[in-house]
């Protein structure tokens, strides 16, 4: 059977020794955590935490979007303003997204920085390279 760390029978010296060791362990842990703090210095105009382009409206988008999911879910998508609005409405209806008082600023930022692209990742394959469809 395990014994509690401190009991009434323990001497006062033992109690202080145990409390001292716990204090040293706690201080060591907090110092180790302070040394591993991540610095968040923007590089090339990109926020290192969210991956968002640092432009007007970025803070509002980061606060609202990354509260529920990774910034990568936003940055990998490129949609028109209307499609971003449809996505926000879908999240509000099905995912419990709260009302967005700064919705216009969020849509301005998303459509300006993650708007529709004129082309995809690569050009479509030529017809002669496409698999044949047998009927």
Can you give a write-up of this model?
The protein has helices spanning 12-35, 58-65, 71-75, 81-94, 103-113. The protein is elongated and about 85 Å long. It is built from 5 helices and no strands. The chain is an all-alpha fold and 135 residues long.
List keywords for this structure.
5 helices, mainly alpha, 135 residues
Mean pLDDT: 83
Q: Give the H and E element order.
A: HHHHH
Strand content: under 5%
Cα(first) to Cα(last) distance is 75 Å
User: Sheet with the most strands?
Assistant: none
Question: C-alpha Rg, in Å?
Answer: 27 Å
Shape: elongated
How large is the count of helical segments?
A: 5
Q: In a few lines, what is going on in this structure?
A:
This protein is an all-alpha fold.
What layout of secondary structure does this protein have?
Elements: H1 12-35, H2 58-65, H3 71-75, H4 81-94, H5 103-113
């Amino acid at each position: 059977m395990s014994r509690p760390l401190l009991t009434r029978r323990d001497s006062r010296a033992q109690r202080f020794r145990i409390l001292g060791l716990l204090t040293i362990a706690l201080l060591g842990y907090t110092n180790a955590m302070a040394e591993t703090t991540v610095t968040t210095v923007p590089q090339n105009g990109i926020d290192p935490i969210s991956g968002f382009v640092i432009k007007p409206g970025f803070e509002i988008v980061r606060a609202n979007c990354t509260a529920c999911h990774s910034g990568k879910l936003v940055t990998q998508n490129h949609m028109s303003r209307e499609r971003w609005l449809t996505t926000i409405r879908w999240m509000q209806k099905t995912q419990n997204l709260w009302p967005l008082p700064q919705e216009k600023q969020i849509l301005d930022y998303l459509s300006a920085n993650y708007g529709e692209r004129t082309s995809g990742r690569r050009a479509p394959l030529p017809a002669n390279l496409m698999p044949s469809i047998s009927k």
